[in-house]
Each structure stands twice: as C-alpha cells, then as structure tokens.
C-alpha cells in the first residue's frame, strides 16, 4: 500500500478520534450535569408541602408531586440519552470505522466523488459533519453489495444509483490502523478469511464488517411479509438475521422497539449463545423464546412434552403426526370451531355450595339463544353478560336461605366490622365544607358514619346481602374468565369429530387407527400430559372459541430452524401474531424432529401469505466449517452437492474405529488431549441424553461439562451434549460419539448425522464401534481418514 495513503488515512483517523474524544468528554460532563440536576430535583422533594388534611389540599399536593415527577423524568431521559451516547462512543473509539467508499451519485452527475467512512454507528462532529456513517444507513449498502463501478442501492425513497471508485477496508485496533487494503470485490476474501479463522466461543459474534451480498439482501428487506431463508448448515442464516434485527431497529427507530420483535429459537441454550450480538451492535435484545415456552406458559396446569421427550419418543415419523401437523388439520379445526356456532359447545355448570347454581344446559340455552350471525367470541361475551346478570338476580333468593342465617349468627366482631365497613376512614369522610369536598362526598355516597341501621331487620338485610355477594364472588370471577367452558372436553370432542372435517385417507389413516389414537390422547390428558402437537391444536381451538385476536403489537417475528415446525404450528403463529412480518430461517436438511414432513413446509407456509409478498433467499455458500469438513458433511446428505464450501483449509475429518466401547473411550480421551491443546471449545456430541449421561460417568473427567438441559449455560473447554441440544451451535472441534449403525443406522437419521457433523468449525472426528455408520456410504473415501 502506498505510504501516502497510510499517512492520509492515519490523519483522518486521528481527526475522527480527536472529535470522538472531545464528544466523549462533553457527554461525560453532560451526564454529570444531569446527575446533579436529578439530585437537586430529588432534594427539592422536601419543598413539596404535603397537605393532606383537606381535599383541596390533597389536590394541590398531587399537582406539585406530578410537576416534580415530570421534571425528574425529563432529567432522567436526558441522562439516559447521554449515557447511551457515552456507551456507543466508548465502543466506537477503539474501532471508529471499518470501511471507506468513494463514489459519485450518478443522479446529480456532478462527477465529484463523495467519501464516506462506515462504522458500527454514525458520528458527526461539532459542525454536524458526518465523520462516520452507520452501517445501516442506506448509502452504506454500497459497501456490502458490489465492487467498483455502477451500483444501485435502496433508500426509503426508492432505488438510487451510484458510481463507486474506491472501496477500502480497515482493521483498526485500539485506535491504530493495523491493516488497510483496497478491494474491487464486494467484501474481500482476505477479510472474511480472517473473520472465519478465529476460534469459536460460547457467544456468537456480529458479522457487521463482512456481511455478504446475499446476506445483505436478507438484512435490508422491508417489502416481504414472509421472507423465507433457506440455507445450508453454517451459511450464516442466524448471523444475518441478527444483523437484520439491528437493521430494522435502526430503520424504524422511534416507531419500533426491541420489545416488538420476537425470535423463536430452537432451544434455550441457543438463546444464550446469541444474546451478545445485538448489544455488540449497540442495540437491545429482542424478545427470545422457544415454541415450547410460548405454548406451555399458556397451559400451566399441563405437562407439555419437552424437547427431549419430543426428540427421543420419535412420534413424528407416524402418519398421525403428519396429519395433525398439516394445514388441512388447521382448516379442519377452523371448520370445527365454526360449527360450534350452532351446537356442541362443551360446558360446565356453575357450581355453588356443591349444587349447580346455573346448569350447563341453561348456559347452553343462553349461548345458543343469540342470532345466527353472532361470532363465537360475541356469543361468549353476550353469554358472560347474561350470566353476570343472572348471578346478581340470584342474590335476593339466596339471601333467604338457611346458610346465610347461620353465617350471620356465627359472625365474629371483626368479621362484622369488616362487613359493615366500620372503622374505615375514607378520603372525603371528614371534610371541610368546601365545594370540592361536597362534590367528593356526593361521589362517595354515605360513609360509615351513616351506617347506623334503622332496624334489626335492615341490619340483617344488609348483612345477608353482603354475605351472599361475597360468597358469589368466585362465581363472578369464573364467569369473567370463562371457566364455564369445558375446553378439555371440547378438545376431545374435536378429536372425536375430526373425521367429519378431515379426510383421513389423504394421510393413509383408517378410522379405527384414528379412534385408537384419540383414546391414547384422552388417557394422556387425564394425566395432564399433552404432546407439543396437541398443545398447539388445543390452544388454537381455545383461541377460536374465546375470540383471542393475537398479539397485535408484535411487528416482526423471526423463526429459526423452521424445519422443526409443522405447518400447523406455523399457521398458528401467523394467527397469533397477525400484524407481524415473518422472517423464517431453515435448512430442510437439518429437520431432526419433523424429518420428511418438512419437505413441503416452505410451500405450505407461503400459502398463508399473499404470494406477491413472499420472498425466498437461498444461501448455498457455507462459512462455518473448513473446506474439508463441508465437503465431507455434504455427502452425508442425499442431494447436498450444491452446498459450496468456503475456501478455508484444515485437516480432513477422521473416522476412528474401535473393536469395543472401552477402546472407543480410550480413543476419545486421546482425541480430547489433542484437541484441548489446539482449540478452545470441543463438543462431544452423543445421539441421546442417556448416552451423554453415561459417557460423562465413564469419562470421569471433571474438566468436561455435561450439558443435559437447555437451561444450562454453554461452557468453554470441552462439553458433552446430546444431538438435539447442539442445534444452531458451533464448536472448534466436534467428536461424534458412536457414529456407527447403533445410533445412526437408519436413513431417517441422515439429517441428524449431518446436523451434528456440521457443528464443527476446524476439526471433526467420528468415533465408531466396529464399523462406521452406513450413512457415510456415499462419502468419497478420499474425503476422510480412517484409523483403526
Ligand atoms: N458474512 C460473514 N462474515 C463472517 N462470518 C460469518 C458470515 N456469515 C456467517 N458467518 C459465520 O459462520 C458461522 C455460521 O453462521 P450461522 O450460525 O449464522 O449459520 P446458520 O446458517 O444459522 O447455521 P445452522 O443452520 O447450522 O445453524 C458463524 O460463526 C458466523 O459468525
């Protein structure tokens, strides 16, 4: 690189750093100043005169408290803003920017080149001149999208053309330019290579400096209602989508908060793995949850099938699962719910003192008395209102019953006082005789002082009304909550009646197979157990009956590892987040829960959206693994040939054969010693949890962490983890335990083996007893080494 260029760039960097330091000082001073102001305001609380003797006094006091609070919150706001600026600046000052582009806007045709520097966030000097542009600014797209020459980029006002004359990349550390180079490509391979050669860690990092053109499309897409990203393992789907969240928060700043963005992730461990990326980009994390958490928190009394059970019980290969997870099933539930408008709503009587106070037959009469064009939710609301009125109407007759008489007799002094409200002084009871207090008194009605009963009869009357009203309160609550709906029975009825709404033959199911299945579900339900598939059905039915309209505040919904969802679950999410734009990421080759059922997922899901608003992006280039590992893993799949490896070289994967498990354990220990010298993180991936637990006992190595549950934290060093928890994660080295036919012998386990093998960044070893898995049959032998 020309020396003059380095001198000029150093000069620009120093100028930027100087301006940043100045701004940092000013901001620090501002924080100090606002802190002082806050202190002063807080201290002046003493000046607020608390006048509580009179009503007008209270009003006056409330007004000055409000004023004080307003002042405080304004100061707090400016403090928060200053603190945010301070944090951003501190982050920026080490690496103020990572790229520069020179370009001219063809539109103006002035021919004069503009120069902009691109960094994590924008920075302008005292004269409001931008020294650094945010990577999310429209113009920064030029950096990611193309090389030198004419380019087009999107702005909120439409496409804009530009002519790029220079693209320069920088590595700046601690405020010093370490390297800088000019490139003609979108993002130079050298920079990407350096980003990918590092060791993995327990936390994912942002890819802001090396976002690829295809990824940039995903990040900046605002038009699609459904953005479907299909990409091979390690093709940067997750990385890109986290950048997308940061982009959206910037693009819609002031209108969109991180609380309005939800990410559904495969498991908690993964949530933990990615939760540093947004803060690193200077943004707050979005809401992250798993589908299991979303569904199970709504049914706290049920034991919803866990991830482990779901994986190990392997119910999903059955035709029943295919039927229950289908869009046809979703339509069937919708149609079944429709018919509840006419009949068959399952109800519970409202019980009072062991007897039905309002019987379920009566409730059904009420529910079905309304006009045909009532919707389910309107019917329910109207029924609630009528039930509330009947409840009030029952007070009179109930007051004359013996139990009330008895309750009055048995009242203690304290209970009596509570009932008549004696001893309670309410605001407004003892007032000066001014206008405000008179109004107040009128609003409050008679105070306790007036509660002197004219006669014993009046007193009894009063007490019995109080007692009955109290006793009926739980029923009022039940009515409000709709507890008279018998959802369990309704769900069972849905399953029983399903053959009227779903063509079982379409799924190769006979009526008796279905009926048998329904009996199993009923047994499980009695034990308060529900599979995840049934939970979704159950919740959808419940929402239709109660007229829940979903979470309308959520604007963007992301679903990672979509291949493990059924079309039914996706349709349910679409129903539950009606105003959200969806971005879904998946790799059909990693469908470990839904297996072949995943094949039509993309088509099925897209059906739920307007076809003009659906966009698909396919990522075939992988970044995670070395060329050798990617070339090996792609042959595990049938049809994985179009996966392109990134040209980063490493060792060939190794297959180690052992005559027995004891020898395999020994091989494992040897391999661990080697890897622990070379790498930061090594994962021993077993197929099941039971395998992981047993291996951990056999190893008896305290430095190896066993990950048994998704609620644990990832640990640096060596871990043992069951396959289904390794989803979405990556490790420097991976050792697959029992990579033989005992664990990976079926064609249906092909995707699982691919998923676990593709977790490796730099090294991969497969340990097998006697013979390696038959699923490697199509992998050319030259792509790996065998040791026995
Ligand atoms: N443009 C990029 N620049 C630098 N690193 C990248 C880039 N894209 C992806 N990576 C890295 O490649 C690795 C794999 O990315 P990521 O986990 O996002 O892939 P994925 O498609 O979600 O994989 P999987 O489907 O296997 O979970 C990560 O370490 C990520 O940081």
UniProtKB/TrEMBL annotation:
UniProt keyword Lipid metabolism present: no
Binding site residues for ATP: 231-238
Gene Ontology annotations of biological process type: recombinational repair
This protein's GO CC annotations: cytosol
Region described as Disordered: 429-450
Domain of life: Bacteria
InterPro entries: DExx_box_DNA_helicase_dom_sf, DNA_helicase_UvrD/REP, HelD_bacillota, P-loop_NTPase, UvrD-like_ATP-bd, UvrD-like_helicase_C
Keywords: ATP-binding, Helicase, Hydrolase, Nucleotide-binding
Gene3D superfamilies: 1.10.10.160, P-loop containing nucleotide triphosphate hydrolases
Molecular-function annotations in GO: 3'-5' DNA helicase activity; ATP binding; DNA binding; hydrolase activity
UvrD-like helicase ATP-binding domain: residues covered: 210-626
Pfam families in UniProt: UvrD-helicase (PF00580), UvrD_C_2 (PF13538)
Protein name per the record: Superfamily I DNA and RNA helicase
Biological source species: Leuconostoc citreum (strain KM20)
């Amino acid at each position: 690189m020309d020396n003059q260029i380095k001198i000029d760039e150093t000069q620009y960097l120093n100028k930027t750093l100087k301006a940043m330091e100045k701004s940092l000082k000013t901001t620090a001073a501002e924080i100090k100043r606002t802190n002082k102001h806050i202190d002063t305001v807080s201290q002046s609380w003493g000046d607020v005169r608390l006048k509580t003797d009179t009503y007008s006094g209270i009003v006056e006091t409330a007004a000055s408290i409000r004023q004080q609070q307003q002042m405080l919150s304004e100061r707090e706001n400016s403090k928060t803003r200053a603190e945010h600026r301070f944090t951003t600046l501190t982050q920026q000052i080490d690496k103020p920017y990572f790229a520069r582009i020179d370009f001219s806007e063809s539109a103006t045709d002035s021919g004069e080149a503009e120069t902009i520097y691109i960094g994590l966030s924008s920075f302008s000097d005292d004269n409001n001149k931008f020294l650094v542009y945010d990577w999310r600014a429209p113009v920064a797209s030029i950096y990611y999208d193309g090389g030198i020459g004419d380019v087009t980029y999107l702005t909120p006002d439409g496409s804009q053309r530009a002519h790029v004359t220079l693209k320069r990349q920088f590595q700046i550390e601690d405020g010093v330019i370490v390297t800088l180079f000019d490139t003609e490509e979108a993002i130079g391979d050298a920079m990407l290579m350096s980003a990918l050669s590092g060791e993995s860690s327990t936390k994912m990092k942002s890819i802001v400096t090396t976002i690829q053109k295809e990824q940039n499309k995903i990040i900046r897409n605002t038009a699609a209602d459904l953005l479907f990203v299909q990409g091979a393992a390690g093709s940067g789907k997750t990385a890109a989508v986290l950048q997308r969240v940061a982009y959206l928060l910037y693009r819609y700043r002031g209108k969109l908060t991180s609380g309005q963005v939800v990410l559904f992730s495969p498991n908690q461990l993964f949530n933990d793995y990615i939760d540093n990326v947004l803060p690193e980009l200077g943004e707050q994390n979005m809401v992250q949850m798993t589908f299991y958490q979303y569904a199970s928190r709504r049914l706290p009394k049920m034991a919803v099938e866990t991830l482990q059970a779901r994986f190990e019980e392997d119910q999903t290969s059955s035709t029943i699962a295919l039927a229950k997870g289908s869009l046809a099933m979703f339509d069937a539930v919708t149609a079944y719910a429709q018919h509840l408008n006419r009949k068959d709503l399952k109800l519970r009587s409202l019980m009072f003192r062991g007897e039905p106070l309002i019987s379920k037959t009566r409730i059904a009469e009420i529910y079905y008395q309304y006009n045909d064009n009532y919707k389910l939710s309107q019917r329910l609301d109207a029924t609630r209102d009528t039930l509330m009125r009947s409840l009030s109407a029952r007070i009179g007759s109930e007051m004359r019953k013996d139990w009330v008489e008895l309750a009055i007799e048995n009242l203690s002094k304290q209970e009596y006082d509570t009932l008549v409200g004696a001893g309670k002084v309410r605001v407004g009871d003892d007032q000066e005789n001014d206008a405000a207090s008179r109004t107040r008194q009128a609003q409050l009605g008679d105070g306790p002082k007036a509660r002197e009963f004219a006669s014993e009869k009046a007193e009894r009357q009063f007490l019995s009304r109080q007692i009955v009203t109290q006793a009926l309160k739980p029923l009022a609550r039940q009515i409000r909550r709709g507890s008279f709906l018998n959802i369990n029975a309704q769900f069972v009825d849905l399953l029983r009646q399903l053959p009227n709404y779903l063509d079982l033959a379409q799924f190769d199911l006979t009526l008796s197979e279905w009926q048998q299945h329904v009996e199993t579900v009923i047994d499980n339900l009695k034990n308060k157990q529900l599979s995840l598939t049934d939970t979704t059905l159950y919740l959808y039915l419940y929402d239709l009956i109660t007229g829940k309209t979903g979470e309308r505040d959520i604007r963007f919904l992301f679903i990672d590892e979509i291949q493990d969802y059924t079309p039914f679950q996706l349709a349910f999410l679409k129903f539950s987040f009606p105003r959200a734009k969806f971005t879904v990421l998946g790799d059909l080759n990693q469908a470990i829960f839904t297996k072949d059922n995943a094949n039509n997922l993309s088509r099925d899901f897209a059906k739920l959206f307007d076809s003009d608003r659906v966009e698909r992006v396919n990522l075939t280039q992988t970044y995670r693994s070395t060329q050798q590992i990617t070339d090996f893993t792609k042959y595990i799949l049938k049809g994985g040939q179009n996966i392109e490896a990134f040209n980063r070289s490493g060792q060939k994967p190794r297959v180690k054969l052992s005559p027995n498990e004891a020898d395999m354990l020994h091989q494992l220990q040897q391999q661990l010693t080697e890897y622990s010298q070379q790498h930061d993180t090594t994962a021993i991936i077993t197929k099941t949890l039971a395998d992981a637990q047993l291996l951990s006992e056999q190893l008896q190595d305290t430095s190896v962490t066993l990950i048994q549950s998704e609620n644990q934290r990832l640990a640096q060093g060596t871990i043992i983890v069951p396959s289904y928890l390794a989803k979405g994660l990556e490790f420097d080295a991976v050792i697959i335990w029992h990579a033989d036919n005992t664990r990976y012998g079926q064609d249906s386990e092909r995707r699982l083996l691919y998923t676990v093998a593709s977790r490796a960044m730099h090294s991969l070893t497969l340990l097998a007893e006697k013979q390696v898995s038959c699923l490697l049959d199509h992998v050319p032998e030259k792509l790996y080494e065998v040791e026995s």
